[in-house]
Write a structure and sequence with these properties.
The chain is mainly α. It contains four helices and no strands. Helix 1 packs parallel to helix 4 and helix 2 packs parallel to helix 4.
């Protein structure tokens, strides 16, 4: 592996898995009160855009990191939206 790829994978690992503790905590406790829906929607649009960029550039580090991030962040957004819907009914 070349140094650029290793650097990209190193950065991708830490920025991606920084979401894991919060995602796990939110999914376990089901507490989404402090989560901004607008921020998460904007974040998800950004993540999906990074995935498209990674595909277009054939950039494995960008692609892998953002696919994992999508799987960590999407359940939190869905749970947040469902909890908000329950409270409004």
């Amino acid at each position: 592996m070349d140094n650029i790829l290793v650097t990209g994978l190193f950065a991708a690992f830490f920025t991606t898995f920084a979401f894991a503790p919060q995602s796990v905590k939110t999914l376990r406790t089901r507490n989404t009160e402090g989560i901004s829906v607008v921020m998460y929607i904007m974040f998800m649009v950004g993540v999906i855009s990074w995935i498209a960029y990674g595909i277009l550039r054939s950039d494995f580090a960008v692609l892998a990191a953002n696919i994992v991030t999508l799987f960590l962040a999407a359940p939190v957004l869905v749970m947040t939206l469902l909890n908000r819907r329950k409270k409004s009914v």
